[in-house]
Specification:
The chain is an all-alpha fold. Helix content is 84%, strand content 3%.
Length: 307
């Protein structure tokens, strides 16, 4: 029973820690006049990806690397189907042009690279991890430079003081780190007690738990009508999950993958490509498409539990 309590406490620390980190970092970005869609793609995406990073890096340090890949894959699928689906079901939204033509293709490219690595090489080597880190740093630099060139001037924003922002960021990161360690350790214990593989529990329980910040942040943004932040958070988070989280995990300890990982990476690539194709044609997400996404996730989870 204790491991279930500690798992819930770990998830609470992850969610609240990411929330504090996002609030502090977004406050700094707003003071600099950075557009909301860029905040969603960088600061908020990095903050809401912190739980996945904490769990995956802890897994890499302890040698449970299969959790790292499954957590990222499961989180990306949850983000696209549940987070985007829930946001559009609550409030349909039009798609940001830059997001559709610049950032979504990067997301697909990241998914393709991951799929090819696990299919052809069967691993994410230390060299591949370093390349991933270089790619995510280049992507962030490109976004920030573009945002600063087109800084929004004269916008009235409500932001924390610089000192309080730093306190929020530091405190949030500490909570995320401790929460991630608790989630990883107790999820493995639960998997053993249920007779589940670490792979399966990472694709389901851990993926859902570590994606709660994306869900909460995006739904709150969608209800306020800020679709740039809602979908930008999901796309940015998925890019960060692959390049930053697997980059760090692979650099710390090379990740060996199996046939199951190839199938899971193919699923996330297919979901990402299908979502992009739909958005490219429709230029918006409506309520019906949102409910279709939610239904698809229920079907996917049912499949995982039955096979």
């Amino acid at each position: 029973m204790l491991m279930y309590v500690l798992l819930i406490v770990g998830f609470f620390l992850l969610v609240k820690g990411a929330d504090f980190f996002v609030e502090g970092a977004s406050s700094v970005a707003k003071l600099l006049g950075v557009p909301s869609v860029v905040i969603g793609l960088t600061i908020v995406a990095m903050g809401t990806s912190a739980p996945e990073a904490s769990v995956s890096i802890n897994a890499a340090l302890s040698g449970s690397n299969e959790i790292a890949v499954s957590n990222v894959v499961g989180s990306n699928i949850f983000n696209l189907l549940v987070v985007v689906g829930a946001c559009s079901a609550i409030r349909p939204f039009a798609l940001d042009k830059d997001l559709l033509h610049r950032d979504f293709p990067v997301n697909i490219g990241a998914s393709i690279i991951l799929f090819l690595l696990v299919m052809l090489l069967g691993k994410i080597s230390r060299a591949a991890g370093i390349v991933f880190l270089v790619l995510i740093m280049s992507y962030i630099a490109y976004l920030v430079i573009g945002a600063l060139k087109n800084r929004e001037k004269g916008e009235e924003v409500k932001a924390l003081s610089p000192l309080l922002s730093i306190v929020y960021i530091a405190g949030g990161l500490c909570a995320v780190i401790f929460g991630g360690d608790m989630v990883k350790n107790n999820a493995c214990l639960i998997a053993e007690s249920w007779g589940w593989s670490e792979n399966l529990i990472a694709l389901t329980i851990i993926a859902v738990g570590t994606s709660l910040p994306e869900l909460v942040t995006s739904i709150a943004a969608a209800r306020k009508g800020d679709s740039g932040l809602a979908l930008g958070n999901v796309v940015g988070s998925n890019i960060f999950n692959i390049f930053l989280i697997l980059g760090l995990s692979g650099t710390i300890s090379p990740i060996t993958t199996d046939t199951e990982a190839v199938i899971n990476c193919a699923v996330v690539l297919g979901v990402t490509a299908a979502m992009f194709a739909y958005c490219l044609v429709k230029k918006k997400m409506g309520r019906i498409s949102g409910f279709v996404c939610l239904g698809a996730y229920v079907a996917y989870t049912t499949y995982l539990l039955l096979v």
